[in-house]
């Protein structure tokens, strides 16, 4: 991989390699764009097949956070970290503290939080070395685990997508096929069940499936069967790229709306589902509840204010659907336009009035 060529292609600002032999830390912090503010994005811990895969994941996820934060109306840029390692075996307190010192060295250009493979306890360890971390324990006046709030935002987003597809946002009597009933999706299922939706669930973890069957009377199907079930809404809540050449022909749902990041295997798949008339809620818009919640900590966390802001995911998606209809483009393109317009408007005013952080007039 030609790293500078890759960085240039999407105009990445910075890539930081962090190594600490004592603790075994091998981390990559990618900062994509700080036009709107400091880069905020989670830390993923994962066993990558190669260093190139880890670098690519960090870069791809960091760019996703730029768009997610911009579309959510946050004054924050996009960044992400990947730690190379097995979250079940390779964690130790020194590793997260060493990582915290690297974050501190960036002096606020990057702020972290949870992502796949990391927990509130890990954030607390990072917090021993730096204040540039969110999603730490509520004892510190912080917001804690972002997953339940992400779930609330996804639930609101499913309602917005149902409104677009069915002209009514009630989910009573609607059948939702949920792929992956982990941290986010379990809470999302609680909201759906409460509203009277029928749930069909799958997971590679049998206990997770059983929990949903017991709690919500959900119907369980095998991991490969979820795409073809008779349902109104398909909610991908496991890993990415599940909307692809194999799955699209099987889908019966009129709506795709779930929490997973990077749901489209490629943009071409976003075009295909658009042509088929499926309403797709772009992933980074519908799953922005977690980042909206942790970002509120930067103002002194207020749960009521954070939840009110998370509710605006409904309006953001409604706007995306409007742009999609107005410009006759797929919804993933409409979401990108919404985010890019926001970044462009700020970068224009910055280049007009500011130079190196100082008003140009102060240089006279
Ligand atoms: N946690 C958050 O606040 C948050 C915020 C934004 C986006 N997301 C995204 O939402 C998704 C879920 O996050 P989470 O925190 O709930 O993770 P999680 O690990 O708690 O849940 C994921 C679930 O998916 C299951 N799974 C994995 N592969 C599967 C497969 N092939 N078929 C069926 N099930 C499978 C896992 O067993 C697990 O139960 C991820 O893509 C994550 O990046 C999470
Ligand atoms: C900042 C975090 C809460 C980000 C979250 N992991 C996401 O992908 O949106």
From TrEMBL:
Residues annotated as the enzyme's active site: 80 (proton donor/acceptor)
Keywords: Branched-chain amino acid catabolism, NAD, Nucleotide-binding, Oxidoreductase
Annotated SUPFAM superfamilies: Aminoacid dehydrogenase-like, N-terminal domain, NAD(P)-binding Rossmann-fold domains
Domain Glutamate/phenylalanine/leucine/valine/L-tryptophan dehydrogenase C-terminal per the UniProt entry, residue ranges: 144-351
A GO term for molecular function: L-leucine dehydrogenase activity
InterPro entries given in the database record: Aminoacid_DH-like_N_sf, Glu/Leu/Phe/Val/Trp_DH, Glu/Leu/Phe/Val/Trp_DH_C, Glu/Leu/Phe/Val/Trp_DH_dimer, Glu/Leu/Phe/Val_DH_AS, Glu/Phe/Leu/Val/Trp_DH_bac/arc, NAD(P)-bd_dom_sf
Domain of life, per lineage: Bacteria
EC number assigned by the record: 1.4.1.9
Broad class of enzyme this protein falls into: oxidoreductase
Catalytic activity, reaction form: L-leucine + NAD(+) + H2O = 4-methyl-2-oxopentanoate + NH4(+) + NADH + H(+)
GO biological process, one term: branched-chain amino acid catabolic process
Alphabetical list of Gene3D superfamilies matching this protein: Leucine Dehydrogenase, chain A, domain 1 (3.40.50.10860), NAD(P)-binding Rossmann-like Domain (3.40.50.720)
Residues that bind NAD(+): 180-185
Pathway: Amino-acid degradation; L-leucine degradation; 4-methyl-2-oxopentanoate from L-leucine (dehydrogenase route): step 1/1
First and last residue of the signal peptide: none
Family classification: Belongs to the Glu/Leu/Phe/Val dehydrogenases family.
Name listed for the protein in its UniProt record: Leucine dehydrogenase
Organism this protein belongs to: Virgibacillus salinus
């Amino acid at each position: 991989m030609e790293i500078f060529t890759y960085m240039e292609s999407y105009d990445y600002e910075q890539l930081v390699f962090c190594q600490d032999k004592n603790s075994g830390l091998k981390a990559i912090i990618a900062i994509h764009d700080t036009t709107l503010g400091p880069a905020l994005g989670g830390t993923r811990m994962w066993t990558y097949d190669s260093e190139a895969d880890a670098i690519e994941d960090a870069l791809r996820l960091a760019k996703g956070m730029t768009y997610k934060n911009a579309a959510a109306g946050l004054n924050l840029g996009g960044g992400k970290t990947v730690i190379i390692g097995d979250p079940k075996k390779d964690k130790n307190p020194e590793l997260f503290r060493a990582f915290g010192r690297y974050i501190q060295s960036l002096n606020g250009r990057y702020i972290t939080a949870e992502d796949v493979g990391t927990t509130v306890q890990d954030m607390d360890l990072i917090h021993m070395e730096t204040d540039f971390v969110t999603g730490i324990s509520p004892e510190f006046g912080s917001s804690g685990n972002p997953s339940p709030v992400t779930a609330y935002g996804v639930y609101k987003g499913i309602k917005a997508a149902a409104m677009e597809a069915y002209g009514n946002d009630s989910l009573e009597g609607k059948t939702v096929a949920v792929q992956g009933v982990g941290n986010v999706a379990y809470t999302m299922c609680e909201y759906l069940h409460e509203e009277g939706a029928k749930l069909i669930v799958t997971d590679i973890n049998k206990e997770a499936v059983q929990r949903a069957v017991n709690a919500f009377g959900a119907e369980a199907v095998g991991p490969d069967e979820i795409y073809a079930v008779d349902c109104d809404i398909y909610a991908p809540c496991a890993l990415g790229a599940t909307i692809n050449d194999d799955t699209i022909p099987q889908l019966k749902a009129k709506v795709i709306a779930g929490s997973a990041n990077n749901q489209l295997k490629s943009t071409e798949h976003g075009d295909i589902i658009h042509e088929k008339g499926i309403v797709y809620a772009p992933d980074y818009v519908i799953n922005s509840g977690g980042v909206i919640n942790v970002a509120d900590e930067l103002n002194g966390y207020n749960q009521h204010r954070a939840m009110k802001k998370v509710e605006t995911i409904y309006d953001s998606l409604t706007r995306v659907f409007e742009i999609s209809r107005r410009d006759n483009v797929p919804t993933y393109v409409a979401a990108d336009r919404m985010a890019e317009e926001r970044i462009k408007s700020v970068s224009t005013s910055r280049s007009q009035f500011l130079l190196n952080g100082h008003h140009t007039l102060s240089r006279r």
